[in-house]
Amino acid sequence: MFPNGQAVQRRDIVGTNQAVSGFWRRVRQDYGTRQVIFEVKNYENMTVEEYRQVSGYLGKEYGSFGIILCRDKDTALRRGGDLESFREFYGKGQLIMKLPASTLLSILSKLRSPERYDAGNAFLEKLLDTYIRMYASGQTEREKTSKKKKS
Fold first, then answer.
1. pLDDT reading at 64 higher than 80
2. Does the pTM exceed 0.90?
3. In 77-145, where do the E strands start and end?
């Protein structure tokens, strides 16, 4: 759905969250998000401006969770860019997740297979945990890997 076509603040895609289990249930319960905003960016590098835009849409039934769909090649957040932006809004009680288009395509392709139907849900659950456990504290994937090698 492309809501608010004539509004000053337009959201790219909004989907109703009716989940009773899994990742989307968690989003609904933990972040009060009944209407999920997907802000679509046709480029790779996210700055604080993209996070600020999504943040401005959140509240009421949109809750405190939003997704930026972009052309980045990696789901990981990087220092000097999206990590600091994510942390700024997480500190204000909002979780804004970056989801590369290639990752979304991979998730959607797995839905065709009955034995891999839950793979997308599992991936998103793990990604959300990574955001909360690592990125919220300022840690990056690279640092996580480096610390494991030193032990």
1. yes
2. no
3. 95-100
